Amino acid sequence: MKLARARSRVRSPSRNHNENAVPPLPRHSEDRKLTKGGGRASSEQQRATTSVPVPVVKGVVTQQRIFIGDRQSYNMVEIGASTNAGDVVDMVEAQGSLKGWVGTGGWMLWEVAQDFGMERPIRSFELLADVETSWNKDKMVNIFVLKLTPLASLLRRTAIPSVSPLHSGYVEWEIKRGKWNKRWLSLREHGLWLSKRDNGKDEMFLCSLSNFDAYFVTRLHKAPKAFVFALKSTENISLFENTADYLHIFSCNKNDGDRWMERVLLARSYVLHQERNVLFNPKTTTGLSRAGTRKGTGRPVQQPLVNVGSTDLFEPGSLLRK
């Protein structure tokens, strides 16, 4: 009986040990299956990630060509997420590249949308990162050009009106490639409206100046009148289900066309000032600055660890003390 009890005592720890034992690890073949499955899933995730356009990362600085005048020369300029058109003009001018040019007006940076054959002046407070967002990254044909223009005084920051301008008149509207119809175009309520007659009976809303701007059409265009201008979205064309809503082209005589461009550009400046007031806030410096010295903090003055004010270095009574 004593021997049986002893054996049972010996077996009981082994039983507890088996109950608390760690389960065996999976075999190598199972590990390979998991690795293959995991590897395929990760590659699909990478493929899905690369198909999405990479957003502009704040703080990243890139080198950009800025062409000058006739585009026979250019300067390299560093552009970040907060760089506006006015900064580019100042940087190129500081490099001495704007001297000796002949023209009227002031220097402005222009967006040359060569994929559509048109261009527009970029206001000094507009961010270049926002302009580049609307470009087709597959073509990479659009550029920035510095030019002298009389529009510089009209589009400067101090010339933004207190109310949005109004304008209306008959124009030729290209309803499809090569086909034009006479329409009454009206600029009001921060947008543009079209109707067959000036009474506005069958009026329809065309576009909002919150995301549209006026462009000079530079590509040869077969039009009924001498002057051709366009209203194009400042967003990427991929956001439009119907690409016909992305661009609207008009034709009229030269005097009417100049007035239309001035009114629409000025109305767009007003909308930007109202809806994107952050563009007009002063930029904050990110450099390190030294903190000023505080006075009268009330903290006790700490004594130095070693008293160097006295010439006696030895204790009183010492034979070495003078």
UniProtKB/TrEMBL annotation:
<dbReference type="InterPro" id="IPR011993">
    <property type="entry name" value="PH-like_dom_sf"/>
</dbReference>
<dbReference type="InterPro" id="IPR029071">
    <property type="entry name" value="Ubiquitin-like_domsf"/>
</dbReference>
<feature type="region of interest" description="Disordered">
    <location>
        <begin position="1"/>
        <end position="51"/>
    </location>
</feature>
<protein>
    <recommendedName>
        <fullName>PH domain-containing protein</fullName>
    </recommendedName>
</protein>
<feature type="compositionally biased region" description="Polar residues">
    <location>
        <begin position="42"/>
        <end position="51"/>
    </location>
</feature>
<feature type="region of interest" description="Disordered">
    <location>
        <begin position="283"/>
        <end position="302"/>
    </location>
</feature>
<feature type="compositionally biased region" description="Basic residues">
    <location>
        <begin position="1"/>
        <end position="14"/>
    </location>
</feature>
<dbReference type="InterPro" id="IPR001849">
    <property type="entry name" value="PH_domain"/>
</dbReference>
<feature type="domain" description="PH">
    <location>
        <begin position="165"/>
        <end position="271"/>
    </location>
</feature>
